């Protein structure tokens, strides 16, 4: 990786997280929004009725590889001039890829609306972050949707991003977030995307496999550990996604909540496998889920710091 040592990784990790917490999501000209526009243009160009998985693979490469190569080139140029400039470039790239503060802002707004009895506002806010129907939803339905979103996006927007940053630096975080964005845009089992989007979906599954299980372990450690482990083992195999299953089952168990079950998408009712065990979610549980993710991020920083201390001791022994 392009960061010189373990202490450099920890420093960039902490600065990237602090920058995200201080500034939050870029309000205008966010790089991922621009990437989404690029992905839409590529999809319109290549996703014809005759498109297959090879076309999807080509589309993924055209969307992702030039931007990852550009980020690596920029870092190499920065490193040529100054190691400090390279370090700044690394944690700025991490900042653009992280979504810790935005995850809190979007979901805390739902919790606030529910706590003040503003169901219309809660429905509107929830519709921003989930694809399920919210027009006639009650508090329990909205709270469940928000908690599930926090748990799942805690992996995608926080822990998996940190994992790939620790492994490959800024370009690793960029690579992961671009692939994850393409999965969110193309990874549907619909007539339009079934063949074209399957490569993006599989690439995201591969890149998320280890981070998802580390996220599930993080939730279990910080919550009701035994219940989280039991729910993970029993319920994750029945969930459609190989990575969302462990994350959400362990997270629901850690919080002692009963999630999953019935949901409506475009007017069609869908009964999903159960997640977790315990109470029905409410507004306060949204804040509990956010604390779980935020405490988990702090735990990862602590583990990274301890690892740096250990590696430094080994190197100088």
Automatic annotation (TrEMBL):
Keywords: Cell membrane, Cobalamin biosynthesis, Membrane, Transmembrane, Transmembrane helix
Organism: Undibacterium umbellatum
One Pfam family hit: CobD_Cbib
TM helices/strands, residue ranges: 54-76, 83-103, 157-179, 297-315
HAMAP family xref list: CobD_CbiB (MF_00024)
Pathway noted in the entry: Cofactor biosynthesis; adenosylcobalamin biosynthesis
Keyword GTP-binding listed: no
Major localization class: membrane
Name the UniProt record assigns to this protein: Cobalamin biosynthesis protein CobD
PANTHER family for the chain: COBALAMIN BIOSYNTHESIS PROTEIN CBIB (PTHR34308:SF1)
Topology class, membrane: Multi-pass membrane protein
Described purpose of this protein according to its UniProt entry: Converts cobyric acid to cobinamide by the addition of aminopropanol on the F carboxylic group.
């Amino acid at each position: 990786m392009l960061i010189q040592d373990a202490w450099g990784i920890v420093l960039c990790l902490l600065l990237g997280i602090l920058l995200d917490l201080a500034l939050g999501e870029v309000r205008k000209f966010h790089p991922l929004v621009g990437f989404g526009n690029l992905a839409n243009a590529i999809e319109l160009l290549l996703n014809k009725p005759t498109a297959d998985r090879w076309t999807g693979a080509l589309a993924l490469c055209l969307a992702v590889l030039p931007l990852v190569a550009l980020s690596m080139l920029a870092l190499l140029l920065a490193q040529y001039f100054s190691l400090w400039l390279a370090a700044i470039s690394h944690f700025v790239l991490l900042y653009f890829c992280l979504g810790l503060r935005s995850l809190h802002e979007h979901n805390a707004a739902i919790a606030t609306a529910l706590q003040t009895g503003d169901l219309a506002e809660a429905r509107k806010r929830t519709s921003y972050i989930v694809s399920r129907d919210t027009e006639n939803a009650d508090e329990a339905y909205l709270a469940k949707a928000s908690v599930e979103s926090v748990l799942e996006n805690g992996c995608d927007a926080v822990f998996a991003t940190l994992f790939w940053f620790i492994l490959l630096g800024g370009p690793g975080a960029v690579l992961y977030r671009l692939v994850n964005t393409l999965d969110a845009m193309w990874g549907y089992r619909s007539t339009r995307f079934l063949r074209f989007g399957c490569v993006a979906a599989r690439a995201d599954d591969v890149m998320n496999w280890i981070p998802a299980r580390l996220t599930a372990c993080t939730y279990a450690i910080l919550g009701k550990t035994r219940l989280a482990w039991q729910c993970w083992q029993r319920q994750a195999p029945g969930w459609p996604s190989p990575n969302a299953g462990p994350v959400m089952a362990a997270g629901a168990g850690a919080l002692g909540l009963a999630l999953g079950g019935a949901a409506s998408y475009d007017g069609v009712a869908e009964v999903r496998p159960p997640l977790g065990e315990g109470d029905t979610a409410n507004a306060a549980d949204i804040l509990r889920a956010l604390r779980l993710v935020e405490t988990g991020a702090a735990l990862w920083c602590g583990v990274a710091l301890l690892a740096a201390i250990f590696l430094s001791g080994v190197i100088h022994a």
